[in-house]
């Protein structure tokens, strides 16, 4: 873990143009779909879900019986909240608060259902996360609630819970019939008399244990059938078909390829501009200075020495610029010592104070670390050159879902705008090429936040 504040001389790096709120690339596993296996290249296909193993059938039956007991109470409370919310909608807008609470109650229910299904069938579902609006203020709050209320992933989970509750009511009734059938089958042992089938039809003698056994078998079949049906419905709701997975994999590969091509084009343009505007004129100046010194070396040795000294100083500056340019192409410290040390070196060269909070329990792939490193470098450059910020905070974590997450927040003026080929465009392209997502939030007045997430094994 690194936690430091650094301030010191900074090398010149390609300036990053500020940009407005930028929509992220197509959703990844964190948006609620099954997590692909961590591997380079296109996302792996989700394995088939086994729902017919005896252990999972028994566990599913237990889940359904439990949901048959608690599910009706949950939906009664939710419908009650819905009714009260609409009833008080025009009473000082108190109903709006209740309806917003209903949305997040449904989110909590969906989160529970996804966790329950994932624990039962081991599908590999990513944890459901609340949606956020890129807008700010009261409009942003309303937009956030609307995004959450219309989240299809949430509603699929709620539908799964509702169907499981209905199947649970059937399973509870069948479980009661199993208990009654067993009692009926053993009733002759205890000398019970006046037995009535379903409490209506009286019968006795040998029919009693036979009816008990048949009732038990049929009721058990109903419970098992409900458990199997639950597995089929869950697979339909949460696991996309193979064709859909292949289409999504193709779209993801296309997006990553386009991001890689654009990132390479932006990087090439930056290198050409740095060479043309920086190193090349300096080398030309060195050549002219040395030529002038050559003409004066016989007539005015002192002036020639001064010119040579000037050329020597310019040569050292050119070497420094070339080193900085090479560092912008490839940070060797990133390979040698990892992202933590590379970011510490980056913060030490910043024009403004940078507070680093890096907590990395393990190394990620080189592609993931490089994408995050260069994204943070561009963001810090933007803060130093364009935002008039007095400080930056950088947070880096490896999340539970296996993504490398980083956020840069400055206290500058904000008001960013998208410029194709600029620094923010480069961030998005590079992160997209690594299979991740980028979110840039820069309202007028600040602060500006750059948040990136890249699969650790991208």
Automatic annotation (TrEMBL):
It holds the Pfam family HisKA_3. Residues 1-40 are annotated as: Disordered. The chain crosses the membrane at residues 57-82, 88-112, 161-186, 206-233. The lineage of its organism: Bacteria, Bacillati, Actinomycetota, Actinomycetes, Micrococcales. GO terms for molecular function: kinase activity. The keyword Transferase applies. Its EC number is 2.7.13.3. CDD domains: HATPase_UhpB-NarQ-NarX-like. Keywords: ATP-binding, Kinase, Membrane, Nucleotide-binding, Phosphoprotein, Transferase, Transmembrane, Transmembrane helix, Two-component regulatory system. Residues 367-458 form the Histidine kinase/HSP90-like ATPase domain. This is histidine kinase. The keyword Metal-binding does not apply.
């Amino acid at each position: 873990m690194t936690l430091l504040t650094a301030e010191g001389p900074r090398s010149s790096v390609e300036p990053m143009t500020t940009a407005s709120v930028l929509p992220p690339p197509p959703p990844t596993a964190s948006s609620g779909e099954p997590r692909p296996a961590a591997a380079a290249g296109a996302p792996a296909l989700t394995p088939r879900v086994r729902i017919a193993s005896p252990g999972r059938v028994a566990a599913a039956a237990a889940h359904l019986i439990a949901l048959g007991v608690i599910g009706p109470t949950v939906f009664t409370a939710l419908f009650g909240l819905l009714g009260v919310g609409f009833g008080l909608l025009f009473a000082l807008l108190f109903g709006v608060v209740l309806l917003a609470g209903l949305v997040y109650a449904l989110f909590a229910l969906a989160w529970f259902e996804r966790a329950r299904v994932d624990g039962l069938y081991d599908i590999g579902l990513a944890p459901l996360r609340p949606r956020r609006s890129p807008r700010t203020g009261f409009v942003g709050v309303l937009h956030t609630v609307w995004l959450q209320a219309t989240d299809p992933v949430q509603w699929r989970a709620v539908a799964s819970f509702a169907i499981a509750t209905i199947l649970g009511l059937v399973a509870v009734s069948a479980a009661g019939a199993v208990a009654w059938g067993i009692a009926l089958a053993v009733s002759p042992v205890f000398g019970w008399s006046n037995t009535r089938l379903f409490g209506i039809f009286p019968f006795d003698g040998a029919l009693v244990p036979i009816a008990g056994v048949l009732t038990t078998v049929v009721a058990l079949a109903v419970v098992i059938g409900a458990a199997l049906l639950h597995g089929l419905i869950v697979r339909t709701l949460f696991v996309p078909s193979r064709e859909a997975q292949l289409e999504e994999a193709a779209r993801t590969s296309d997006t990553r390829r386009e991001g890689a091509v654009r990132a390479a084009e932006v990087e090439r343009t930056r290198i050409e501009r740095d060479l043309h505007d920086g190193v090349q004129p300096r080398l030309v100046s060195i050549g002219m200075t040395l030529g002038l010194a050559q003409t004066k070396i016989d007539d005015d040795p002192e002036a020639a020495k001064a010119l040579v000294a000037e050329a020597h100083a310019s040569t050292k500056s050119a070497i420094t610029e070339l080193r900085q340019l090479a560092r912008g192409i490839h940070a060797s410290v990133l390979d040698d010592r990892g992202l933590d040390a590379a970011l510490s070196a980056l913060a030490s060269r910043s024009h403004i104070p940078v507070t680093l909070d890096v907590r990395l329990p393990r190394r990620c792939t080189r592609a993931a670390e490089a994408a995050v490193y260069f994204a943070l470098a561009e963001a810090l450059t933007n803060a130093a050159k364009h935002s008039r910020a007095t400080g930056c905070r950088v947070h880096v974590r490896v999340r539970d879902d296996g993504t490398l997450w980083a956020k840069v927040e400055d206290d500058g003026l904000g008001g960013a705008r998208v410029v194709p080929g600029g620094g923010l465009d480069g961030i998005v392209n590079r992160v997209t090429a690594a299979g991740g997502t980028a979110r840039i939030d820069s309202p007028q007045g600040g602060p500006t936040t750059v948040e990136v997430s890249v699969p650790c094994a991208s």
